[in-house]
């Protein structure tokens, strides 16, 4: 029998009853003869509530203190679940992220895992214990507590699974799998039985909140079999693996959308050769995620550089670019808010030209203006006005034959 890593999200551990229910799911796996490591998120909306509390103290909390605060959420759930398991007669030990050997880079609020030291987890497993690990947290080389970014418990689970050579990593959540698009906004969204790592990675990066992108990255790099399934019902869920077969006649697997995009424009770059790399290395040094990049040449010979960022990075980006104005060499910075990104993802695109064209015609038919475009082998993204995001997503989802009724027919 192997080692199974189970991860339960915030909704799944949202109340006393739900934690008891999670204990049942854990016991079921344990009774099959497996060793079980459970990773938990904070209960319900605890993390949001802690963020709100911090805001009552200061409008600009230091990131270190935020991490100290937010990591307490997961510690509540881990100890409560361990108690519930002990109450059912199972040996169980809860561990914080650092006790479980999760080491990270020295970055607060969005650290990457650098190493997992598994000796403690392994020896506890050898004693027949169920290990409950607090997700979303680790420790850096200076002994500081760090967090892995919102939604990071998924990454804790997959990193542990990879380090300990687990047979499977099951992500239990409040939906029954990965959907072709967000069912809350698109009628006809349907559950996928399978999806490839690459497609899932694109969807996760594009804002499909069901999985933390770094978790998918880990799973891909280490070939971890990952499932997303419901913590409430006994259903199959979605299997994420290297090659997930594409349903016949489909080229697109899913449609993702993401609000709160800002288009930044660095107007009048004086020196294209030095200015272009300067902008992006300065942003990278400050951990600002830049997405779509467009460069346009002006009649004057100067260059405008546009790129998209998340709205949450706007203030910081403006400050940073302002501070480095002389070094970069530009006239001014402009920005446009209230934008959204809508994307299609599917490995079928590789061998089917015309997918982007079809997307643009659908948008044109619905009179939706496209402001920026980016493509990769298996993805096309467009930036549109936020007021048109849902309309665009619905139209595209239908046009590529992804609606539930279309596929079942
Ligand atoms: N509790 C953290 C959050 O809400 C981490 C997680 O749930 O994965 O973002
Ligand atoms: Mg999550």
TrEMBL record:
Pfam families: AA_kinase (PF00696), ACT_9 (PF22468)
Record-listed substrate binding positions: 47, 74
Entry's Gene Ontology BP terms: diaminopimelate biosynthetic process; homoserine biosynthetic process; lysine biosynthetic process via diaminopimelate; threonine biosynthetic process
Pathway: Amino-acid biosynthesis; L-lysine biosynthesis via DAP pathway; (S)-tetrahydrodipicolinate from L-aspartate: step 1/4; Amino-acid biosynthesis; L-threonine biosynthesis; L-threonine from L-aspartate: step 1/5; Amino-acid biosynthesis; L-methionine biosynthesis via de novo pathway; L-homoserine from L-aspartate: step 1/3
Similarity comment: Belongs to the aspartokinase family.
Membrane spanning stretches: none
Lineage: Bacteria, Bacillati, Bacillota, Bacilli, Bacillales
Gene Ontology cellular-component annotations: cytosol
EC number(s) recorded for this UniProt protein: 2.7.2.4
Name assigned to this protein: Aspartokinase
The protein's assembly and partners: Tetramer consisting of 2 isoforms Alpha (catalytic and regulation) and of a homodimer of 2 isoforms Beta (regulation).
